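A favour, since you know our structure tokens better than I do. What I am after is a single protein written out in full by you. Could you add the entry underneath, on a fresh line?


***
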Amino acid sequence: MVIARSLKDAARLGSATTSLLLRRSEDLVCQNLMCAKIGEACVCRLAVHLSRLGKLKELDVAENDLGVLPEPVFELPALEHLDVSGNGLKDLPAGVAALSSLRTLRLSDNALTALPKELALLPLLTEVHVDGNSGLGSSDRVVEALQHRPQTTVVFGDAGDYSRRRQEDASTSSADR
């Protein structure tokens, strides 16, 4: 496993990089004079580096207040773990469907009100964290679809995860018979 903890590390390690961990990273503060987000968190530098990291399995860009995700995130075929918590995301692009290797998705503490239906099509997805998105609840159609997949756990934070609770309820019912 080749871990990069900065964009400089990722550039140095190149395509061998399997994990890019940029939680609360100063690397994502834009320095491009042509960008409207200069001095703020921005996806422009991240996008350039991601396009060179085809073997990336883990991407953690949590707590950077990015607002959006760059398209190259959805062009990482080997990506298994994606943490975009605390980025002020208002939506998750349908491009997430291209992440066929994705197992864990952390969307906590954003501004999501719905999830794309394509999320329910990811074959290996086993864990989705949606806590801290006040506009998103268990009544969301995609969340509901994910909860009905036996291999997928949807985590809502302090309320506990509904999938595990549903499995426990099923076990209790079986034991009572």
About this structure: The helical segments are 7-13, 44-50, 141-147, 162-176. The CA atoms of residues 24 and 76 lie 22 Å apart. The beta strands are 3-4, 19-21, 58-60, 81-83, 104-106, 127-129, 153-155.
